[in-house]
Amino acid sequence: MNPVLKTVAVLLILLAAVLGIIAFQIARSPAPEVAAATPAPVASVNEAPVKQQTYAVVVAAKALVAGSALTAESLQTAHWPVLPANGFTDNRLLLGEVLRVDVPAGDPVTRGMLAQGLATHLKDGERAVSIAIDEVAGAVNRIEPGDMVDVFFTLAKDGEIASTQARLLLSRTRVLAYGAQSVDGPVSRAATPDDNKRQNTPAAPPRTAMLAVPLAHVNELLLATRNGKLQLALRAPNDIALPDTALFAARDPVLKGRAGLKPEQQQQLQQPDNIAYAGESLSEVAASSSQPEGKAPAKPAQSAGSRNQGRSIEVIRGSQSERVRY
After folding, report:
1. pTM (2 decimals)?
2. Which of helix, strand or coil describes residue 149?
3. Element housing 14 (H / E)
């Protein structure tokens, strides 16, 4: 027999013996235990749940009506999972603000619910009144919002005014807006493709001014605006001089207080709201009805021809009157 083949045969026999021994050992070894599934951890009853993030939100503590001022009692802080758009987290930022809409109890107070614009710059008892101005009446357009001005007016002689007059109407009056400028800043608007062209075009001169006028003087300003010419006089901001109206005769209102009023009711007639309601007449504002004591108003002389021209009636259009013969 070939020696090489003999050697290969011996090696194969030895390999078969080794494999047989390994198979025998595997057959005798116990089967591996299957690992038990690990149960999910159960939360303990005493463990605190994970807290969700919340935000402080200022809400109405009760139903609030439009026009009411916000106080500490009308607001409270709630914790919400989200912060409302334009909401507030500190009620101290809202104290004294005025609502322009109704807010139900529990609803958040947002910036859009608050009074905004020029109305927030008015003091108690003031009203914002617009008047027409030009370069002359507006002090050559040197007036800016926030300035103090004196308002003068002139009235020309006509059927109701005995003589042409000029006098101070309102003293130390605050300017809220002048043209497009206001104490809130320039008027904002969306950009347009024509903005580049407008930059090279001179701005239109201001045509209106808005003044903060005490309520008791709004009537006389309106009368002067409709029947005369106004002039704004710029004054120094630290000049606080005012005319002493107690030195002059009181004007008669359009509506008189009714008879039999008690003393305290007579005093109420001097409140700004009641003065404004009583109204003003142009003749009183212009003081054209005042005459020296004991002297009746002079009547215009008539010629013989004018007395024989037939009958006439008086036609009144607003504050203007004329005689029409028939």
Report:
1. 0.62
2. strand
3. helix 3-28
